[in-house]
Specification:
The structure holds two protein chains of two kinds. Chain A is of the alpha+beta class. Chain A contains four helices and eleven strands; from the N terminus they run αββααββββββββαβ. In chain B, helix 4 packs parallel to helix 11 and helix 5 runs parallel beside helix 9. The chains are: A alpha+beta, B mainly alpha.
Chain lengths: ~220, ~325
């Protein structure tokens, strides 16, 4: 039976599934305002990345209430430390949600260089901080670094804090040019992005702002 | 088939219009949609803030309307939460698109599944709160990981069931046609024309599709309600993460009832949005089927084909989500 429309139907519906089903897993439930600080050595090479993530009000309040195991209304060092240890251990398997590239090549991290969690009483926000060292220090004079901070699963939406979301240990030496996310429009142009099984690409990357970093 | 050229012309015109739209609007053909999603995303972020301060305000003796305000924020959060992509919406709109059912039932399915999601979260966090103080969130996350898999597997199962139901008339038709291919030989032996009523064979399923006999229709209605309930359960077994956070906070601060009310309001908001989408899908379903049935394929075959493809789509959504829960390490914050 020569029936183009009937043959088209499954194609249409499966396309709809790709559009609906791909992002089906992905909508943010937690929001982070991220401040990222790049550490430079004396040669003005970038040696480490430090992240400070401030969580949204709902998550902040929920964690403050929930982590307070002894219910004394305050988060003790031990209560905060237990949380930070667990999360940072897990984050190591996700490249710390931090992507630093140069000439399109991803730079490797040597590993975690310390971190903690804290409660900002004035802002009433919960904060996670950590620092990761680069495997090899990198100069940026010839070609800029591109920084993206994102959760590939997009369970968490991470925005670069405004106005000063990208900082440098040597403030005069470097500059960051922050550009908006590629956004959902990309979804229809490059399906490969969210079909890619690589944990470090993923759907969330489409929603990551990029910071182009150059140091003199 | 005299309608063939007409249909081909319509199809080519649609393709042409699509290509023209794409070329004219290039290089950013869907910017408006991306812009819409960006806007919704910003709103959702604002709601996370409002929910946090809403629960906080419950502890403020000055604020007397805290309870209502929180429920209100929950409702609007729910409405906007459902505008972005989500697994429940994908499953339910696909079901509404692929299966003939009443608008009331579609709306009930959407509202029901959102309500089940809210209730799952309430039972989960409420149960945990009875057993322990603190650590509710960690407990709920572990349970979510499990329930998520149960839900996705159930969605895949429902999809396969729907696909099988769609395939049944197609298989029956194929059997009939195969039986017929042996017929012409017998006919020519008997000195009769080989194909006396080829067209009539195609019309037969169309009659089925347009004129339901009362009894099968009633039966279909019952099984449709059962299908709807099964889908609502399959989708809703996975608790809503946003609701879990609100409940963890409300229970920990001792405002359990306000938290429950806020989550029910949230479910209502989500359910209404999904219901609107699903009802829309059901409404445009009929004209689309009629358009497809203009072609050489009988309406009954089109209906069955759509049901089959819809079931496969739902199964594909369930399976891809299920596979994703096994791929990669556990989420650091979930």
């Amino acid at each position: 039976m020569a029936a183009p429309p009937a043959a088209l139907l499954p194609v249409l519906l499966l396309t709809a599934a790709a559009v609906l089903g791909g992002p089906a897993r992905a909508h943010p439930h937690v929001w982070i305002d991220a401040v990222t600080k790049l550490h430079l050595n004396d040669d003005r090479r970038v040696v480490a990345v430090e992240q400070a993530w401030m969580f949204d009000d709902l998550y902040s309040e929920a964690m403050r209430a929930d982590l307070d195991a002894d219910a004394d209304g305050r988060l003790s060092k031990a209560e905060l430390g237990g949380y930070a240890d667990k999360v940072l251990r897990n984050l190591a398997e996700w490249h710390f949600f931090t992507e630093l590239t140069q000439n399109g090549r991803r730079l490797d991290f040597a590993g975690l260089d310390g971190g903690d969690a804290l409660w900002l009483d004035k802002q009433r926000r919960f904060v996670l901080r950590f620092r990761v060292a680069l495997e090899t220090p990198v100069a940026t004079a010839d070609s800029p670094l591109v920084l993206r901070t994102f959760d590939p699963t997009y369970y968490i939406a991470i925005d670069i804090a405004k106005p000063n979301g990208v900082l440098f240990s040597d403030p005069g030496a470097c500059a960051a040019d922050i550009r908006p996310a590629e956004g959902a429009g990309e979804l229809f142009l490059s399906e490969a992005d969210f079909l890619d099984p690589d944990v470090n690409k993923g759907y969330g990357r489409l929603f990551a702002e990029t910071a182009r970093i150059t140091c003199r | 088939m005299r309608r063939g050229p007409l249909l081909t012309a319509v199809f080519l015109m649609l393709c042409g219009a699509g290509a023209a739209f794409y070329l004219l609007a290039a290089p950013e053909p869907v910017t408006w949609y991306g812009g819409l999603l960006d806007g919704v995303r910003d709103l959702q972020k604002a709601f996370a803030r409002a929910l946090g301060s809403g629960v906080r305000a419950l502890g403020d003796p000055e604020s007397e309307t805290g309870f209502l305000a929180l429920a209100g924020v929950g409702f609007v959060y729910g409405v906007f939460h459902a505008v972005g992509p989500g697994h429940g919406k994908a499953v339910i709109t696909t079901y509404a698109m692929a299966n003939e059912t009443s608008l009331r039932r579609v709306a009930a399915l959407a509202l029901g599944s959102a309500l089940v999601q809210g209730l799952t979260a309430i039972l989960l966090v409420g149960g945990a709160a009875l057993m322990m103080t603190g650590g509710l969130r960690a407990f709920a996350s572990d349970a979510e990981t499990l329930l998520e898999r149960v839900s996705y597997a159930a969605v895949a199962g429902v999809g396969l069931y729907l696909a099988l139901r769609g395939a049944r008339p197609l298989i029956a038709q194929w059997r009939r046609r195969r039986a017929r291919t042996t017929l012409p030989a017998a006919r020519s032996e008997a000195g009769l024309p080989a194909e006396p009523e080829a067209d009539a064979d195609f019309e037969e399923p169309a009659v089925c599709a347009h004129r339901h006999l009362p009894t099968p229709d009633e039966m279909a209605r019952v099984s449709n309600w059962r299908q709807a309930a099964t889908i609502a359960l399959a989708v809703g077994v996975r608790p809503c993460s946003g609701a879990v956070l609100v409940l963890v906070l409300a229970f920990a601060l001792g405002f359990a009832l306000s938290g429950v009310a806020a989550v029910l309001a949230m479910s209502l908001g989500t359910g209404l949005t999904v219901a609107a989408l699903a009802v829309g899908a059901q409404v445009i379903r009929r004209p689309l089927i009629d358009l497809l049935a203009l072609g050489p394929v009988a309406a009954g075959t089109v209906v069955a084909g759509v049901a089959l493809a819809g079931g496969l789509t739902v199964a594909a959504i369930g399976l891809s989500l299920l596979a994703a829960t096994f791929g990669g390490p556990a989420h650091p914050f979930a």
